[in-house]
Amino acid sequence: MRLRVVLAPDNIRRLDILENLTLVEHLKTILKERLEIKDDFLIQFEDPEFGNELCNLTNITELPPERAVLKILQKVPEDSEPETSISSLDTASVSSPYDSSNQSFPFVSVRQHGNSQWPSPFPIPKFYYNELRLEKGNGNFKEDGTLLTVSREMKMEILDSIAQAIFSFKAYPNNQELESVSAALIEKYPCLKDSGSGTGYHSWTMSIKYKVGNYHQKQRTAGCSEVTVNQKRVNNDSRCLKKAKRCEINFLPDNPVGQTDYSLQREKDALQEEMKKKHFSMAVVDSKMDLTFSLRRKEIVDEEPLVADVLKQWPALFLEDQVCAEFYRITQTNLKSTFLSSLDEYASKMIMLYRSRGGAYRDEMKTLLDQFDQVII
User: Fold this and answer.
1) Do 6 and 70 form a contact (C-beta atoms < 8 A)?
2) N or C, which end of the chain is more exposed by having fewer CB within 10 Å?
């Protein structure tokens, strides 16, 4: 088999493999040895059945028989900084610390391994092809205040890398967050300052804003759920944007690998049939609720159904355990433990508030609080 292997835009190799490939791991071992790849990596291939669009290689039989084009995405070590993320579309499967009858959520995807809030300061990624020029520019700026002349190619690389880094945290950042990115860029590379700007980064803020908009279009074309959901918003009104609220890490995840809307719809139908049983299996419910999470989020976010319709379509979602499980799927936060710990924190202040309350319910409240005091004692 002859392979064209894309390691980087300027590092594309051709390999002839004589061995009989039987497993993806076998191919990875060969690529590691022949291309001297040290870290773990993901293999994508151009699929002729989908117009040569890239797909993750999960089975060696998916490769064309004679020639294939592969793309290598090196994975980031767990102890590395978040700024070295492979791609804004990368997701990681995680298991839930939430435990109710040993439940877990293997199909939950997180964009940045648990980063739920906008970082401060923003982690500026490395610009590998221009890092040396930027370091020299910083040295010249420190020495005599000379600003670096930024070429078009250099600016494109900076903006592309920053757009990917932004998307790894949030698909729709606001103006203040975009300004924090440009401020962090100038803080790290003062040689890039605007010569005629009071802040030194106004033009970078505008450039980043437009680049993020272009990046949305690319992700929409690639089928990223979190941006395609806003493709038909009314009059392009930004107030109608459907985007993640605070702590919604998995606002609108893509389907699990190997699953389509059609296959997930069949799982949903099977889940509905299971819930009609008098003694349904919680293990089956847990498994299918995990698997159909992306489909459920699409329906709820895109269609905004009434609660009665959600109950009809997803009856399992209204079970107590599944309320907690769904909360974890979306926020990566344990609902019960968070609620109870917060209740402990504010209980004394709430009791003081109840004691000071007057009005029509004063006597009833006093009776309840007296009973509460007797229980405490």
Assistant:
1) yes
2) C
